[in-house]
Specification:
Blueprint lengths: L32 E11 L4 E10 L4 E10 L7 E10 L9 E2 L2 E7 L3 E8 L4 E9 L4 E2 L3 E5 L2 E21 L2 E5 L4 E11 L17 E5 L2 E3 L2 E9 L5 E10 L10 E2 L2 E8 L6 E9 L6 E12 L19 E9 L13 E11 L4 E12 L17
Length: about 375
Amino acid sequence: MASVGRVLSSFDDFPIHQTSRPVSQTATSDINHYDRYFFNGYTKDTRLFFATSMGLYPNRHVVDASFSVVADGGTPAARQISVHVSGRAPADRADANEVGPIRIEVLEPLNALRVTVDAPEHGLRADLTFVRRSAPIEEPHFFQQIGLRVTFDYTRLTQFGGWEGWIEIDGVLHDLAPGETLGCRDRSWGIRGVGERSSTGAPVADPQFFWLWAPLNFDSFSTHFDVNELFDGKRWHETGFIAPIAGPEIAPPAEAMRSVDYEIAWRPGTRTAEWFELTMTPWVGEPTTIRLEPLFEFQMAGLGYLHPEWGHGVWKGELEVGGERWDLPVGNPTAFDRLHVQAIVRATTSGGIGEHEGIGILEQLALGRHDPTGLTGLLDGWHA
């Protein structure tokens, strides 16, 4: 068994400390502290969608990652293929960007990153470079408390970009030409529920989580939206930005919206959107309306979210690698581990920003009751 007594690391030679402790020690001993990368990408014809994530859980001494691809999206041949890896976290944060066959390399901070995957035994290999289309957006801080217990306390940045490189799926090579594959990434760190489920004492509220996240790419700009709401629709987090396209030297800052709102129609018997419309109101000028048309859904379980076996921060051993695949759409969309999805969407704007067509995703996780949209029960699908 590896020693956990070492706390000094290579980063302690740099003037980057935020506490009086070495860099390897977090500001809090909360076991739910995490530090995570997330990326997604999609070809403009939407036939190929991919996503990857990597998380470090210092107080659990765990690091994990996943890479997942949807091939032939929106067709009868659509399938999702994933590789997962989990292991012991390295003592030095400088070594924390690689676990098993998945590696993330920061080529130029806040501008370019590289993702490599080498898991041919699970049908996946890749060498991909993400290059910014926008400046990074620092979302409003996430904080939620249930009773006296802090459940969310984290920071996240979101950034739009393009991809180039290649993905190999079951031995078939897919080249991603510059300008033809778009997407976004996020980086988040702080406290949120990870790892094995454990007792939290006396219940103080019914289980409930409502989350919508919609980063969208257009030819000359990008838009970003999210909301977290309680069962009665009261918001505890929201984001709204319009981001201009970055130039070779300058990435203009995104414009924060004064307010955001949305309408959603659930597909009967599910908790996923049949259609979606959001309104972004700037501080000066007319509101912009964006209509989203869902094309198909990517299962976030392919990245470990709500996964019964490959959940984030779960200790599985010194190094474990596994793979899985399934046909799309899944046959049990209201099962707990199938609730969390990213729908690939076509987007159309009208109003203040003018008429434009774009592409992006609508992430959805609706667990428990949500009165404004008619959801009842813990997992019940919507019915009129």
